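tool=predict chain=A
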Amino acid sequence: QVQLVESGGGLVQAGGSLRLSCAASGRTFSSYDMGWFRQAPGKNREFVAYISWSGGSTHYADSVKGRFTISRDNAKNTVYLQMNSLKPEDTAVYFCNARDVADLRDYWGQGTQVTVSS
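tool=predict ok
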């Protein structure tokens, strides 16, 4: 089992940048593919970005492609989401996700609020 704690959210003006971090503890961090999801008020949780356990593969939602970058440091048990050129529609609670590559079980952090003002 893994525990996830997100940080780095906050209030930023449109066009600005933020970097989210997700620190993992518990089982070996490289046992998990990692992802970021977000949920805006009144909307379903949606996929944002994915990175494989080795860091060799990444995928992004079309809405963030070219603006957001996911990365991981397995030595620090941390996954990052660098968010540039932020837009008001990026406002949401951002959740870190870990998927165990062995049994495909999902784990979630508690979320961090990102608010982009226009």
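Residues 6 and 22 are 4 Å apart (CA to CA). The first strand starts at residue 2 and ends at 7.
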